[in-house]
Write a structure and sequence with these properties.
Layout: H1 2-24, H2 41-54, H3 57-79, H4 84-105, H5 112-122, H6 130-158, H7 165-182, H8 187-197, H9 201-211, H10 215-240, H11 249-276, H12 281-291, H13 296-311, H14 316-326, H15 328-343, H16 359-380, H17 385-395
Helix pairs in contact: 1-3, 1-13, 1-14, 1-15, 1-16, 2-11, 3-4, 3-10, 3-13, 4-5, 4-17, 5-10, 6-7, 6-10, 6-12, 11-12, 11-13, 14-16
Organism: Sphingomonas hengshuiensis
Transmembrane segments: 6-24, 89-105, 111-128, 133-155, 213-234, 255-276, 282-311, 332-351, 357-373
InterPro entries: Bact_Transport_Assoc (IPR052529), DUF418 (IPR007349)
């Protein structure tokens, strides 16, 4: 379905705008620019553009598409007389294994495990009507917003005077954990992370097995409701015809104006608050984690409408985006292999060497590679390499790969 492919192509390109920071810098830099990578001039502009337009939106767009594609596979299994549950859970089980291999062997920022686990839950909701999908999705977003709100509340509570010395020590330890995640970690912590990712593969791998084995569980508990909501919105978008490109252009324009008319000013206000606060710990916890959460679905929906409107014009770029989207699984994994090779010590060792704005020429080069190689590949083969492997494993038989030349 070309409309889904184009939106997915934009999403897989857009995700790299945010992931590049995790590839190239200490983890705290993703949320707080003061942590590392520069927060003035061009570096600040790069952070704010990403925060307002892309952070969480591309991941959310990808989640929309995951939900829609999942429902499409289920519907096609039903239509072909195949057991939909078996088809779906085989796909999710193999995706889970791919994700664990990616997380533990390649990169700490994997999203595939999370999608596989949430996808298993979403299957139970596949029969809901559009209105109920939307209502449940909105409820989950609000619930996750309340969960996120515990973070600024915790910062506020821990910053107040303690009743005694023992409580003060406990509060200091808890506050330091929050500083490491959302604020400006101590220099020793930054130095440890720089040394780690500039080292060899065996050292990085050992650290990953020591510290990241339970990462999927934390992501499931803290971000699972939001991801499930986005998948439900994607299922609703497919059912309603929105993600199929079936709406009239005027309807896409109306939704774009309403969604971005609400969300964009909200995000700009949050960005101004962050700058005015100097990216303080409480401000980051409040603006980036909590107040942005209810605005994100509106921004994501606006992005989907904008992409589908522009895609109607067709042309070479749309065709290349569609090909990139059809190979999103392969392209996502390829970006991890490329970027870890560029930034980690067992490759070129650029980790921590570039400022924030300097990362985006690298992004542009990786984008160019994805756009250039996906279409020629699909002119010769039915699937991307990892799409073919996933499909073959899930169906327990090798799938036809090469496209027969015209007679």
């Amino acid at each position: 379905m070309v409309s889904l492919d184009i939106v997915r192509g934009v999403a897989v390109l857009g995700i790299l705008l945010l992931n590049i920071v995790n590839f190239a810098m200490p983890e705290a830099a993703y949320v707080n620019p003061r942590a590392y990578g520069g927060w003035h001039g061009a570096d600040l502009v790069a952070y704010l553009i990403n925060f307002v337009l892309f952070d969480g939106k591309m991941r959310g767009l990808f989640s929309f598409l995951f939900g829609a594609s999942m429902l499409l596979v289920i519907d096609r299994a039903h239509a072909a007389g195949r057991p939909a549950a078996r088809v779906h859970f085989a796909r999710m089980a193999w995706l889970l294994l791919f994700g664990l291999a990616h997380l533990w062997l390649v990169w700490r920022g994997d999203i595939l495990v999370h999608y596989a686990l949430i996808g298993m839950i979403a299957f139970t909701l596949r029969g809901m009507r559009v209105e109920r999908l939307l209502a449940l999705g909105i409820t989950l977003v609000l619930a996750n917003t309340l969960l996120f709100a515990t973070m600024p509340l915790m910062v506020w509570q821990l910053s107040h005077p303690a009743a005694d010395a023992a409580e003060a020590a406990r509060n200091a330890d808890a506050l330091q954990s929050l500083v490491s995640a959302l604020g400006v970690p101590p220099p020793a912590e930054i130095a440890r992370e720089l040394a780690l990712y500039r080292s060899d593969y065996a050292t990085i791998l050992a650290d990953r097995f020591r510290n990241d084995l339970a990462t999927p569980l934390g992501a499931l508990l803290f971000g699972g409701p939001e991801t499930l909501a986005y998948m439900l919105f994607g299922m609703a978008g497919l059912r309603s015809g929105m993600l199929r490109g079936a709406w009239a252009p005027a309807r896409y324009r109306r939704w774009l104006l309403v969604c971005w008319g609400i969300a964009l000013p909200g995000y700009v206000a949050l960005a101004a608050y962050l700058v005015a606060s100097g990216f303080g710990l409480f401000a980051v916890a409040l603006a980036v984690l909590t107040l942005a959460a209810p605005l994100r679905p509106l921004m994501i929906t606006g992005w989907a409408c904008l992409i589908l409107l522009l895609a109607r014009r067709g042309g070479p770029l749309a065709a290349r985006l569609a090909a990139t989207g059809r190979m999103a699984f392969t392209n996502y994994l390829a970006t991890s292999l490329i970027c870890t090779t560029l930034f980690y010590g067992y490759g070129l060792g650029w980790f921590g060497s570039l400022s924030r704005w300097q990362l985006y020429p690298v992004v542009a080069l990786v984008w160019a590679a994805m756009l250039l190689w996906s279409q020629p590949w699909l002119a010769r083969f039915r699937f991307g390499p990892f799409e073919w492997l996933w499909r073959s494993l899930a169906r327990a038989s090798l799938q036809p790969m090469r496209i027969a030349p015209p007679q």
